[in-house]
TrEMBL record:
<dbReference type="InterPro" id="IPR001694">
    <property type="entry name" value="NADH_UbQ_OxRdtase_su1/FPO"/>
</dbReference>
<dbReference type="GO" id="GO:0009060">
    <property type="term" value="P:aerobic respiration"/>
</dbReference>
<comment type="function">
    <text>Core subunit of the mitochondrial membrane respiratory chain NADH dehydrogenase (Complex I) that is believed to belong to the minimal assembly required for catalysis. Complex I functions in the transfer of electrons from NADH to the respiratory chain. The immediate electron acceptor for the enzyme is believed to be ubiquinone.</text>
</comment>
<keyword id="KW-0496">Mitochondrion</keyword>
<feature type="transmembrane region" description="Helical">
    <location>
        <begin position="176"/>
        <end position="198"/>
    </location>
</feature>
<keyword id="KW-0813">Transport</keyword>
<dbReference type="GO" id="GO:0008137">
    <property type="term" value="F:NADH dehydrogenase (ubiquinone) activity"/>
</dbReference>
<feature type="transmembrane region" description="Helical">
    <location>
        <begin position="289"/>
        <end position="307"/>
    </location>
</feature>
<feature type="transmembrane region" description="Helical">
    <location>
        <begin position="218"/>
        <end position="237"/>
    </location>
</feature>
<comment type="similarity">
    <text>Belongs to the complex I subunit 1 family.</text>
</comment>
<feature type="transmembrane region" description="Helical">
    <location>
        <begin position="72"/>
        <end position="93"/>
    </location>
</feature>
<keyword id="KW-0472">Membrane</keyword>
<feature type="transmembrane region" description="Helical">
    <location>
        <begin position="105"/>
        <end position="125"/>
    </location>
</feature>
<dbReference type="InterPro" id="IPR018086">
    <property type="entry name" value="NADH_UbQ_OxRdtase_su1_CS"/>
</dbReference>
<feature type="transmembrane region" description="Helical">
    <location>
        <begin position="244"/>
        <end position="269"/>
    </location>
</feature>
<keyword id="KW-1133">Transmembrane helix</keyword>
<protein>
    <recommendedName>
        <fullName>NADH-ubiquinone oxidoreductase chain 1</fullName>
        <ecNumber>7.1.1.2</ecNumber>
    </recommendedName>
</protein>
Length: 308
């Protein structure tokens, strides 16, 4: 009975996240439309509610383009690997606490996040296209740079409760500890935007200089899988931020309000800010965010020793 409930919970989580990915694309197109004084999708069903389903039918029924000189296995395997890693990240969250007790959830989060760069690099290299290869290389450098900062920011939060259990961190944040982490929160949001390749840090998919980046040669269903993985990472980081910095439980109303606020922020930034310059992005990571997050580790470690 316990195994059946566990499998049912995991399946429901996967299906819910996939449905959420479909409708966050509709949310983004609607918000961008109103910010640009236009309607956005409004033809499919009432207010365009079936637009995600129409997009899915269109993408998964189109012919799959097979570049003649591409590396066949890597080319078709990398999108599914990207989507699989995005789904596996959800298992690190303390959502199914009675069924999955993960005392090292943070370690699992960092391990899966570190593997996320391989599908992008594999997709860019296996396409045998200069544009795709440059897009993959830029994504590799950008992702590695900001993952270091992300890990340092999380570690500075974890020092105060001396645990890698995310559930204990949520319990700690309920005592308004997030007021101490406000500077960390600003660094975290900048690093998250760079990690998921969103505007103004969308250099992996720079349409103006790279055509479409590492996914230039992709089309049909395999392009849709890359698309789904990217938006699933946005939803995951919004969920993780709500738990890590605000301490809201997964089953509370305030959690869903904060989750939608984070998702709206990602979309809002896309409609507001122009693309950053790549050299300034790397300088921001290595010369500003990384030293600041390193200082936070020493500060919270010192604070932890003093309070003991």
């Amino acid at each position: 009975m316990f195994n059946f409930l566990l499998i049912l919970s995991l399946l429901s989580m996967i299906l819910t996240s996939l449905v959420a990915v479909a409708f966050i694309t509709l949310l983004e197109r609607k918000i961008l439309g109103y910010m640009q004084i236009r309607l956005g999708p409004n033809k499919a069903s009432f207010l365009g509610m079936l637009q995600p389903m129409s997009d899915a039918i269109k993408l998964y029924t189109k012919e799959i383009a097979k570049p003649y000189s591409s590396n066949f296995m890597s080319f078709f395997f990398s999108p599914s690997l990207s989507l699989m890693l995005a789904l596996m990240l959800w298992f690190s969250l303390p959502i199914f606490k009675p069924f999955i007790i993960m005392n090292m959830g943070l370690l699992m989060f960092m391990a899966i996040l570190g593997m996320g760069v391989y599908p992008i690099l594999m997709a860019g290299w296996s396409s045998n296209s200069n544009f795709s290869l440059i897009g993959g290389m830029r994504a590799l450098a950008q992702t590695i740079s900001y993952e270091v900062s992300l890990i340092f920011i999380i570690l500075s939060n974890m020092i105060l409760n001396n645990s890698m259990d995310l559930f204990k961190t949520i319990c700690l944040q309920k005592s308004f500890m997030f007021l101490m982490f406000f500077f960390n929160f600003i660094l975290w949001m900048i690093s998250c935007i760079a990690e998921v390749n969103r505007t103004p840090f969308d250099f992996a998919e720079g349409e103006s200089e790279l055509v479409s980046g590492f996914n230039t040669e992709y089309s049909s269903g395999i392009f849709a899988m890359i698309f789904m993985a990217e938006y699933m990472m946005i939803i995951f980081f919004s969920t993780f931020s709500s738990m890590m910095f605000l301490g809201f439980s997964f089953y509370s109303v305030m959690f869903f309000i904060s989750l939608m606020a984070f998702n709206f922020t990602f979309i809002w930034l896309r409609a507001t800010l122009p693309r950053y310059r790549y050299d300034l992005l790397m300088n921001l990571s290595w010369k500003k965010i990384l030293p600041a997050s390193t200082f936070n580790i020493f500060f919270f470690n010192f604070l932890n020793l003093v309070t003991k």
